[in-house]
Amino acid sequence: MPPHEGLVHQQEYDWRDSNVELINSDIDHKVKYQSAASEPAWNNGTIGNQAGLFIWRIEDFEVVPWPRGNYGSFYEGDSYIVLHTEEVKGDAETHLIHDIFFWLGRATTQDEAGTAAYKTVELDEFLHGAATQHRELQISPSDAFSALFPRLKILRGGVRSGFNHVETKNEPQHTDTLLRVFKHPSSTAGRDAVLVHEVEPMWHSLDEGDVFILDKGDKIFVWQGRKCSPMEKLKAAQVVNDLTIAKHVDVEVLSQEEMRGKVVIDYLGGQDLEFGTRFECARPVSSATERDTKKLFKLSDAGGELAFDLVKEGNGIGREDLDGDDVFLLDVGKSIWVWEGSGASRAERATWLKVAQRYSGMQLDAKDLSVAKVKQGNEGKAFWGAVEARADRKTSQELHEAQ
Fold it and tell me: In what order do the strands lie in the sheet with 73-75?
């Protein structure tokens, strides 16, 4: 039996069908803070007081610290909470800016995802509501999340959950592993942003635009597709270096265009394929890009009932379009931002996630996008960049054309 067969959840998690929309609605803030104050994961004297990167995995409804040696590696069968705290210098003093990401693997379960979502809100309460909350999906990593990890590695499998499990322990000493190395599809994620995805060890997982690493236990093969980039080759070499630190094995680097490269295809079950066969396989991430035209919506109950309306569309959206008495949703194409005004009503604040879910579920090109929520006064560079970047770039383009 293939090494990973039977090691996936019976049903993949669909965040739109979960009950995470109920978080931050009727639970009193004081009760949530008391709950947060009793969570050992947050109460180590460091969280909220010190800059840094902190990661936890959801295991049997518990928040368990992720080993620092595994930072940047995530299992597709799990849900994680990632806290990034940065020290920012202001005019008078320095202060801490917090970003909380709850990362949902493709095969995570509803109980894991729900726990991650609830605990994210709890951690925000522990930080006195000062954090920006991000919902991250494996299939569409945001620029802000990818920037935290120069090399983001997604592995098959996961930990036991409350109802279903993907077991990673007690497996045979070695099973063939195939890793796909490719550049983050978003050009703004950074020049060195590279993703590493474990894929099915079969020839149909190959794509000539990327680099693949086949670990057979006693030897490692690096297969370079004919269209792969120099950066992908470099990052693949770094991944191989990580793999060989703990064990000394031979490494052979092969190009798709050389006859010897056929040995990798043969190991992956492609013995019947002829040399020169073309390989194409869709990447396991969304290729969503920034919209040419942004959309700004307002969630408000000023008229007596909650209303969600488009208030501005185009490249001229700016800070002046945000009203502190309401909640706004900004759709930039590759991500969705929710901005909560400091004077927003309780109903507006309690409904933002439900509205964001319904909105993204209704948009064919937005259903799998990351969603981030920020409160007025705690915005970071990522949010203001999303608000203003397109407008600034458009203005620069128009000035260039005018010249």
Answer: 73-75, 151-155, 194-199, 177-183, 211-215, 219-224, 250-255
Are residues 382 and 350 part of one domain? yes
Task: Please report the pLDDT score of residue 268 as a whole number.
Answer: 96
Residues contacting 121, CB < 8 A, separation 6+:
23, 24, 32, 133
Is 275 within the bounds of a domain? no
Strands (E), 200-316: 211-215, 219-224, 250-255, 294-300, 307-314
**Alpha carbons 90 and 386: distance in angstroms, whole number:** 21
| Structural domain boundaries, residue 144 | 1-165
Segment 34-49 shows an average pLDDT of: 84
CA atoms within 13 A on the CB side of 248: 0
CATH at 25 = 3.40.20.10
Mean pLDDT of 16-37: 54
Beta strands 52-59; 79-89: pairing state? antiparallel
Taking only the tens place, the pLDDT of each residue in 145-177 is: 888 887 789 999 888 644 444 545 554 456 889
- The 3-state DSSP class for residue 82 equals strand
270-279: pLDDT as tens digits: 999 999 999 9
Residues 84 and 157 placed together within one structural domain of the fold: yes
Whether 209 shows a pLDDT value over 50: the answer reads: yes
